[in-house]
Amino acid sequence: MQIKGMSIGKLLPLSIQHVFAMFGATVLVPLLTGLHPATALFTSATGTIIFHLVTGGRIPAYLGSSFAFIAPIILVSGEHGFSAATGACIIAGLIYLLTSVLVKAVGIKAIQRFIPPVVVGPVIMTIGLGLAPVAKDMAEGNLFIAGFTLAVVIAVSLFAKGMFKLIPILIGIVSGYLMTLLLQMESVANSLGALANRLMPEALIDFSPVADAGWLAMPRFVAEADYLQSGGVEFLLPSFVPAAILLIAPIAIVTMVEHLGDMLAISKTVEKDYLVKPGLHRTLLGDGLATTWAGFLGGPPNTTYGENIGVLAITRVHNPVVVQGAALFVLLFSLSPKVGSLLATIPEPVMGGIVILLFGMIASVGIRTLIEKQVDLSKVRNLVIVSTIIILGISGIAVLGIAGMGLGAIIGIFLNIILPDRDEDKTPNPLHE
């Protein structure tokens, strides 16, 4: 049996590979904000399905929980309650919808004039480079396990044949997981002696949460604190508090810039211009509807995930049905606490080894953009734009709450507009003097 030109036997492992890539980050956001992890998985999966329906199933993008909203959600939930936070998230989603209408009215050609390759390349680079500290923190928990996992992924990517070459991330995660279990075994630890303590200072896998979890349960569409205080209410209607909206909704401006960067990265990876077809207005609409939907159900806002872009770059499998399959898997996992708990046992250093390569791949796509589009970096103008975007994108500098890739992209677009493009304006090459 085949689905959109791909056999089930090939589709399943490819989809599960994407699930592993997004799972950790999507679950982390609700844990930090007090939301229910199963709800985040549910709204992530259904939000991805909504996005694919709106965009005609053309783009291999996965939508997961957005990190940009963590701090304001925590603040609003503490001051005004969880329902006010979800109401503000709904408004953030509506800002996406209004922007999509504006983009449709203006036209993509007018927008593309402001984002030439000299801007696109470094913006994509900062998506990957900006995530480098995340990879570092995840890998540092056990550098041996992270390094072993990374080595397996590299080896499979370079030397494997056939189907195995398409699932290096899945093979790497399984290998890292099994190596962790092996080093945790008492017999292995005793045989290795002092070396065992160096390789595995502490146990990384605990199956007790898996044993305690049930097989089936609906997600709780309410924050943990409200669930406990109310005596078990499973759903609260959102409320629209002006102070909460003013704090959370403007974050949508930042995430829309990030959305543009992700769409550019996916377009370059797949070598199709998704800003034209199905169109930036449709991708913004899909992302906005997914975020609005998540807000109504008590989940965090959604955004396109860099981890999954990295998977596309490594595997070179760009069929959107693979990501759609991943969304269906996540939907099923959100309804099974036991499966979700099992996935949560994947050691952080294992994923640290994976994301070192994933995030690096995203940065490499940006470098490739500059090379393929023959951006002349001997021109001072181009050097200024590229350098400014990269440093602002990875430095952590924030202006009016905008930081990272969002700030770098905005300043880069501004510099591209105001700086003159003159052929004679080139940096001297001391080697030719």
Offer a few descriptive terms.
single chain, mainly alpha, two-stranded antiparallel sheet
Protein architecture, described:
The strands form three sheets. This protein has a two-stranded antiparallel sheet. The model has no long low-confidence stretch (mean pLDDT 83). The protein starts with a strand and ends in a 15-residue tail after the last helix. It is 70% helix and 3% strand. It contains 22 helices and six strands. The protein has helices spanning 8-33, 37-54, 70-80, 82-106, 108-112, 117-129, 132-139, 143-159, 168-184, 186-192, 194-199, 208-212, 224-229, 242-248, 251-270, 275-297, 306-315, 320-334, 337-344, 348-372, 380-395, 404-418; strands spanning 2-3, 6-7, 63-65, 302-304, 398-399, 402-403. The longest helix is centred in the N-terminal third of the chain and has 26 residues, at 8-33. The protein has 433 residues and is mainly alpha-helical. The protein has one domain (2-419).
